[in-house]
Write a structure and sequence with these properties.
elongated; about 130 residues; Thiol Ester Dehydrase, Chain A; 5-stranded antiparallel β-sheet; about 35% strand; alpha+beta
Length: about 130
Amino acid sequence: MNVQVGQELPELVKHPTTRQLVQYAGAQGDFYEIHYDQEYAHSVALPGVILHGLLKAAFLGQLVTDWLGDTGRLITFEVSYRGVDGPGHPYRCRGRVSGVDGDNVELEVWGEDEHGKRTTIGTASVEMTA
């Protein structure tokens, strides 16, 4: 794969649902009520239930690994949360190549709410193998 600085990764759009949040809570063991109980979420000043941070990280990880396919391997990945996202709204995962040094490629990744606000930002390092 020919990779250049500035190259954008194909956008990945997720459509999370409250049901998915409950399923994720069961799989991951995070049963904090802000992820499935609307009344509780409102009682702690949230606009409603919100996505798990690690679920948003998983979506961004999928963005990177879908782009990589069989041409490389993920070396490092980290994200930081800058806003909340709720079910019933599209979550856009985007990224771009920020550096290339031989087979080592640095990526900038982010998740956006439906208004284009970056609610999760991160970086990934990959090694191209094919």
